[in-house]
């Protein structure tokens, strides 16, 4: 969303840049992936006198946040948020002259029917988290250490001056927001910076040492197949993404010292749940399940910070959307508006395209598979195998087709055979033409079609001629010696076991091409 603010412009600065200015220029910034978009040539100056020395910063929009550090006055820390930028412009000793190129901005397309609802709940869509701690809810992140374990106390990592300045800035920002505080903890791990795709840095904490001595707690992470099955019959969808979801959960009071990290300036400890702690995913999923439990399995599917809302028609969907937003407001959970999708007939969810017609492969994943170069080692071959394996439910006889590639893993050394290359090209072809899978309708009759060869077995689950899912399995050496009758019977047993949750206590049609199996019960 857009934040607009302005300052008076000094004539001597505009003359130096040969710019014609009438009145006050407006700076509109849109924070996207920690970047600022400048819509036109912009000059900024503080309005008090005497004017401070100008600093000319020629940039191209969008400008990574690191640009200001490199090109601006070296004694001034990098400016990221609107609040920090505004403070420096009013209180700082340096005036910034930013010469930006026009850049198109992106915004979330909001259907007309949803706009009144979004306006009503606009308090849930701030540009960033509030400068205060989230509420202390029933679910907090707990860190219980193994009794008798030695506490880690590790030195900070060495960094370049530029990296250190960036780390110092990010820690200072967290201190301002109240998300961390100075610490005297005896348990300390180092902080580090990880580069992001846009050229900026993300601060992380190397929590491996503390995770080793943390008691692991388990919470059920929902199965992807089960979540997709819930969408059967849905026609309208919305998706809500939480903003920095982990940072909206408090550390259990008394456990903060166990999250301490070290920089060159000193020790700090988290008051909110950071990334990297071993039980963090379970804590977050517990919170989301508790908060949205009244709507789950009726109109909501939750997977960590992704909330998928599904309905049979638009009017009912608006009611469901209001209920979700009301619950988020009651629990003071902030959403990331730019990553939300509202009132649509199809959307991307967990690597699939979900629509009223069913589910299909994400085109981006298909492109990744099609452009995958021929593997040259185990790592590359396993990478391709893993990506293809994620979509195995879309490919009939998947295990049989990919068997030559999996055979490369069993040999003492990596040998990419002609058969593996042929399978590699075949999998690309199969993925590019993968069908749309129908979501199961438990009011209709299921059909199971089975087939087998001496390489692998396969089956298709369908309804009214439309595939719901494919199943396949590669045979080991012992099973390849089964007789034809045993092999055809084996695939039936495996298919019924695999889809037991669909077929148990239901009538279904079983199709096989082996005549003798017709008399199985005689």
UniProtKB/TrEMBL annotation:
Family annotation (InterPro entries): DNA/RNA_pol_sf (IPR043502), Retrovirus_Pol_polyprotein (IPR050951), Rev_trsase/Diguanyl_cyclase (IPR043128), RT_dom (IPR000477), RT_RNaseH_2 (IPR041577)
* Ranges for domain Reverse transcriptase: 175-354
**Pfam families named in the record:** RT_RNaseH_2, RVT_1
Report the leader peptide range: none
Checking CDD domains in the record gives:
RNase_HI_RT_Ty3, RT_LTR
Q: Which GO terms describe its molecular function?
A: catalytic activity
List the keywords (alphabetical): Multifunctional enzyme
Q: What is this protein called?
A: Reverse transcriptase domain-containing protein
Organism annotation = Platanthera zijinensis
């Amino acid at each position: 969303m857009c934040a607009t603010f302005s300052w008076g412009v000094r004539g001597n600065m505009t003359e130096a840049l040969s710019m014609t200015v009438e009145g006050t220029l407006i700076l509109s910034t849109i924070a996207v992936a920690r970047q600022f978009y400048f819509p036109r040539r912009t000059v900024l100056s503080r309005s008090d006198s005497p004017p401070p020395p100008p600093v000319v910063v020629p940039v191209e929009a969008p400008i990574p946040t690191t640009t200001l550090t490199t090109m601006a006055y070296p004694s001034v820390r990098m400016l990221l948020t609107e609040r920090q930028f505004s403070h420096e412009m009013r209180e700082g000793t340096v005036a910034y002259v930013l010469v930006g190129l026009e850049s198109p901005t992106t915004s979330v397309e909001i259907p007309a029917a949803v706009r009144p609802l979004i306006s009503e709940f606009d308090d849930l869509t701030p540009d960033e988290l509030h400068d205060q701690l989230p509420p202390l809810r029933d679910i907090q992140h707990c860190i219980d250490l193994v009794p008798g374990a030695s506490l880690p106390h590790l030195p900070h990592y060495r960094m370049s001056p530029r990296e250190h300045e960036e780390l110092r800035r990010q820690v200072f920002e967290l201190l301002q927001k109240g998300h961390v505080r100075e610490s005297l903890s005896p348990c300390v791990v180092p902080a580090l910076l990880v580069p992001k795709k846009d050229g900026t840095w993300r601060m992380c904490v190397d929590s491996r040492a503390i995770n080793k001595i943390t008691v692991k707690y388990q919470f059920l992470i929902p199965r992807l197949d089960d979540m997709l099955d819930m969408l059967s019959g849905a026609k309208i969808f919305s998706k809500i993404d939480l903003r920095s979801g982990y940072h909206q959960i408090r550390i259990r009071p008394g456990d903060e010292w166990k999250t301490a990290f070290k920089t060159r300036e000193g020790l700090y400890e988290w008051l909110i749940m950071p990334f990297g702690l071993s039980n963090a995913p379970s804590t977050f999923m517990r919170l989301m399940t508790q908060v949205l439990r009244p709507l789950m399995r009726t109109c909501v599917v939750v997977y960590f910070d992704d909330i998928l809302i599904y309905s049979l028609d638009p009017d009912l969907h608006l009611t469901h959307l209001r209920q979700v937003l009301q619950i988020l407001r009651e629990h003071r959970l902030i959403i990331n508006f730019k990553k939300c999708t509202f009132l649509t007939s199809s959307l991307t969810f967990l690597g699939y395209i979900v629509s009223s017609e069913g589910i299909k492969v994400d085109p981006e994943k298909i492109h990744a598979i099609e452009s995958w170069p021929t593997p040259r080692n185990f790592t590359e071959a396993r990478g391709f195998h893993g990506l293809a394996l994620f979509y195995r439910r879309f490919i009939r006889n998947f295990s049989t087709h990919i068997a030559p590639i999996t055979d490369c893993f069993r040999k003492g050394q990596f040998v990419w055979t002609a058969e593996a290359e042929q399978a590699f090209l075949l999998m690309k072809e199969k993925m590019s033409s993968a069908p749309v899978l129908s979501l199961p309708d438990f009011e209709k009759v299921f059909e199971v079609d089975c087939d087998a060869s001496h390489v692998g077995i396969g089956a298709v689950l369908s309804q009214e001629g439309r595939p719901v899912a494919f199943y396949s399995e590669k045979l080991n050496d012992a099973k390849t010696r089964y007789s034809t009758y045993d092999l055809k019977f084996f695939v039936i047993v495996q298919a019924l076991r695999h889809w037991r949750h669909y077929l148990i206590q239901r009538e279904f049609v079983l199709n096989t091409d082996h005549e003798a199996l017709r008399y199985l019960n005689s």
